[in-house]
Automatic annotation (TrEMBL):
This is YqaE/Pmp3 family membrane protein. It comes from Hartmannibacter diazotrophicus. InterPro entries: PMP3. One of its GO terms (cellular component) is membrane. Belongs to the UPF0057 (PMP3) family. The keyword Glycoprotein does not apply. The keyword Transmembrane applies. It is found in: Membrane. Coiled coil: none annotated. The chain crosses the membrane at residues 7-24, 30-51. Keywords: Membrane, Transmembrane, Transmembrane helix. Its main location: membrane.
Length: 53
């Protein structure tokens, strides 16, 4: 259930979803950059990071 909530957060605000999963690591900064360049790539990356962990 926690992953489902994180995925919902990742859809609304991708960097927050990644931050809740892995903290301020490299994946957070990559996701922030992807979200700034395009919202959809940020969502895809966030869901991937959450599913991977």
């Amino acid at each position: 259930m926690a992953d489902f909530i994180r995925i919902l957060i990742a859809i609304l605000l991708p960097p927050l979803g990644v931050f809740l999963e892995v903290g301020l690591g490299k994946h957070f900064w990559i996701n922030l950059l992807l979200t700034l360049l395009g919202y959809i790539p940020g969502i895809v990356h966030a869901v991937w990071v959450i599913a991977k962990h």
